[in-house]
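Q: How would the structure tokens look for this protein?
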Amino acid sequence: MNATPLTHDDCVRLVRSPERYRTGLISVDGHAPLILACLILDGGDLLIPTASDQTLQRTSRGRPVIANFTHHGLCSSWSITGSGLARPLREHDRPDPMPHTTMPHSTIPFAGFFENGIRVLIARLTGRRGGEVRVPRQRTVAGQRAAAPVRVAAR
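A: Here is the predicted structure in token form.
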């Protein structure tokens, strides 16, 4: 199965589901990407909170940002890339109501989590859905033969 291109709206819908929160590889001004938690807004902009740490906010102001999000499941897979410009979070950027998490035993104080951070004004999200997903071979137990590699076509 060949990969299918996704529109900006398709990308926003996929990256926001099942929740508005997702971790992604975020690269600021061409530097090595970091895995950061993001809140994806309706139009595709990203809020990247940093709690009390102001480093990202200071170093990324007005700089280009590349965000990569991927999902590899048994029934579907996709890869989405967005580019935009960073600016510091402002008071009106903070989510209202504050986000909640479905993670069990989470103790993240979300009210303080959005104290600092950046908003990435996304120019465009592009992506691809599907294509072939390669499932690696199972590990072998001493003296037993490994099964042949499996190829699965994702939708």
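The longest helix spans residues 8-15.

The helical segments are 8-15, 55-60, 110-113.

Upvote if useful.
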